[in-house]
Design brief:
Belongs to the oxygen-dependent FAD-linked oxidoreductase family. By secondary structure, the protein is of the alpha+beta class. It is built from 16 helices and 18 strands. Helices cover about 30% and strands about 20% of the residues. Strands 15-12-14-13-17-18-16 form a 7-stranded antiparallel β-sheet. Helix 13 (about 355-365) packs antiparallel against helix 14 (about 410-430).
């Protein structure tokens, strides 16, 4: 997230007390079944439990029956077998950034398998690959890979877990050069609904390889590790920051629409638009002289910035620049919980001036602090891969509209209704039909098509093959049959 918010010290403890009182499970049978787990198991009666179920979004909250901190594949297998035996729901948690709390199952009383301690990172510089445990967070991965001279393409928020991020796509500031995180997955290990550890790649369980790379966030099993293709970091990168007069927004978007598709693939840009604010963050994978030359056409057509910065840095320092957390929290990430709700739109041919005015009018009048990010896609990210279920390949930019920081439930409910009503109308008039599943949204209509398009039927067939009893389910999981 770009903006860091503080806990609401009144509402949060009340929420924890209320939800823990709702837990209903045979704790004796559960603890007995999980007795062989090598990692820690934490139940609602443990005094640390309330703090452990707080993650990034505190608007949506659920209380599990148990948190299992697995330390290896066997712990995950035991957890799955116990969930089947006790007829419990089960969910995996990697970083705790599911926008709708699906990492906690999307409901109360599920078993949550927390993968935090499955966090090895084994780098093979010769083959340019890295085996990365699913419990790692992006800041840790960037730090360790950069020390060895490598990177993977992924998002900018350090506390995001690689598991859900990569399984749902995973886009960030190197995406136009190297694609989505999911595009760089070579193989995976996954515990299936029978408690069996599966090896998955383009040749072995290739149908799962297709499904997991784009639609794998919690629907098919628990992925415990990935092998990624990793890329050498440039000797120097250039972070870019531009501020603009908000009155020049139409000219800026015209430049974005016209020049954006042809920009050097070493560049990724993100426009931030809010009430009274207009800026661009960007990264160029090379030295500042080259960055200025690569940005020349765009800046000649954009309005003159009120301020501009080209900052030569190491790659990892650029990660710190765009993390928007204290620098020491990048390699040691932690949550900064706050209330928020997000909507997602994907734009193929650029927004019209009418669409931009509509967005500005909404941002100026919505009842809570709200901003929109417009992330430039294209380049390698737009190359279609038939071995992947990720469909968002014909995209000029993706929009994340995020409302946050309301002061009461009444204000929050009002803000969310405004976001939902606006999102439905805006998408029907101005954007493509599709939305990005990593910004998952339980209020999105026809999410099956908006997230997965023509692949949804095939995804159901694969789900029915590997999880016919729908063990791994949440409100927007891939079902075992059509509705």
């Amino acid at each position: 997230m770009k903006l860091i918010k503080q806990l609401n010290i009144i509402l949060l403890p009340l929420w924890c007390i209320l939800l823990i009182s709702l837990v209903n499970v045979n704790a004796s049978a559960l603890s007995s079944c999980l007795a062989s787990i090598k990692g820690q198991t934490v139940y609602p009666n443990n005094k640390t439990f309330p703090s452990l179920i707080i993650d990034e979004n505190i608007y949506v909250n659920y209380t599990p029956s148990v948190l299992v901190y697995a330390v290896n594949n066997q712990d995950v297998q035991t957890s799955v077998n116990c969930a089947v035996k006790l007829k419990m729901g089960i969910s995996a948690r990697s970083g705790g950034h599911s926008y709708e709390k699906y990492d906690l199952g999307g409901r109360n009383n599920v078993m949550v398998v927390d993968l935090t301690n499955i966090n090895d990172i084994i780098i093979d510089s010769k083959s340019q690959t890295a085996k990365i445990g699913a419990g790692n967070r992006l800041g840790v991965i960037y730090n360790k890979l950069s020390q060895a001279g490598f990177l993977i393409p992924a998002g900018t928020c350090p506390s995001v877990g690689i598991g859900g991020h990569a399984l749902g796509g995973g886009y960030g500031f190197t995406g136009r050069k190297y694609g989505f995180a999911s595009d760089n997955i070579i193989s995976m290990e996954m515990v299936d609904a029978n408690g069996k550890l599966l090896k998955i790649d383009n040749a072995t369980n290739s149908d799962l390889f297709f499904a997991l790379r784009g639609a794998g966030g919690g629907s098919y099993g628990i992925v415990t590790s990935f092998v990624f293709h990793i890329h050498p970091t440039p000797p120097q990168v250039t972070s870019m920051k531009f501020q603009f007069n908000p009155n020049q927004v139409q000219q800026l978007f015209k430049a974005y629409n016209d020049v954006g598709p042809s920009l050097d693939n070493n560049i990724v840009l993100s426009i931030s638009l809010s009430k009274g604010g207009l800026s661009i963050d960007g990264l160029y994978l090379g030295p500042s002289a080259n960055a200025k030359n690569a940005m020349k056409q765009f800046l000649s057509e954009a309005p003159k910035p009120t301020s501009s910065k080209f900052i030569p840095q190491s790659f990892f320092d650029s990660v710190k620049t765009f993390a928007y957390v204290p620098p020491n929290e990048v390699a040691n990430p932690k949550h900064n919980p706050y209330f928020f709700k997000a909507k997602s739109f994907l734009v193929n041919k650029g927004l019209t001036s009418q669409a931009i005015n509509t967005m500005i009018d909404f941002l100026n009048n919505v009842s809570c602090d709200t901003y929109a990010l417009f992330d430039l896609f294209g380049g390698t990210a737009n190359i279609n891969d038939v071995t992947s279920s990720l469909i968002h390949r014909d995209v000029l930019y993706g929009i994340q509209l995020l409302g946050q920081d309301w002061n009461s439930k009444t204000q929050g409910d009002k803000c969310i209704k405004q976001l939902n009503d606006f999102g439905k109308e805006f998408q029907s008039k101005f954007t493509s039909y599709f939305s990005y599943q990593n910004y998952i949204d339980r209020d999105l209509d026809d999410w099956q098509t908006r997230y997965y398009g023509q692949n949804f039927k095939r995804l159901i067939e694969i789900k029915a093959k590997y999880d016919p009893n729908n063990l791994f389910n949440f409100p927007q999981s891939i079902p075992v049959k059509t509705f």
